[in-house]
Amino acid sequence: MSTVLVPTDGSPAAEQAIGHAVTIAGQMDGTVHGLYAVHLTPNADYDLGIESPTVQEAEEQRGKAAIDTIERHCEAAGVDFEGHLRDGAPAEMITTVAGEIDPDVIAIGTHGGSKLTRPLLGSTTVEVLRQGAHPVLAVPDESTVPTGGYETLLVATDGSQGSREAENTAFEWAETFDASIEGLYVVESGLSDTAAIEEALEADGERAVEDLQARAQEAGLATATAVETGVPHTVINEHANERDADLIVLGARGRGTLERTVLGSVTERTVRTADRAVLVV
Question: What is the DSSP string of 94-137?
Fold first, then answer.
């Protein structure tokens, strides 16, 4: 995790993402890349009653100030920093810069925006998550920045290849931060009203968490697991609260028993409702 990209729009959510980015890069003697995308809505000049060139200049100044904020955080923590001010749609610019620097993770706030632009880091986060080229750390503005690092990682799995990739990344982060792993499989309620199918779903869950636990313990990581039933994103968030997890880790895509997509939609819902950072792999 030597390279962290943190897009910003100057909002509180972006400020929280900066804290996570600095913590991650600081642990690995890495570099934080700050990005601000100057992107005006068609009605920005009309809404504000000022000329378009003035709006453009104002937004560029806002961008420079936001990037300067990231740089100050990095300087205070002794972390290397590079800034990027680009003209274009946020998701497009994030993808472009990520392609240039190949970050280990993109740390992005889940809410944000300004009077000059459309809300950036809400819809933009979803677009970046769906592209899936790099791991994304989605940070809500009410989350707590782990200044001392991450201690507990909640890894939600469905046993799919996508989940295994997320588990592997979680193991790497756990080793880096000397953190423990909490493995969780959620049997989605309402999929069946027959006992035999419910038992089969629970058996799938037990196999998935047993596999996760075995691989985590092989890596020398402290691990606990659970299989629960309910609405997946709700159970994930509740379990994270109960276990006081610093971070939730999910696969961007997964599979559901009975060929139902689980971690695709569940991941997005978890990101939208979580009160802590969610790492999507």
Answer: HHHHHHHH--SEEEEESS---TTSS--TTHHHHHHHHH-SS-EE
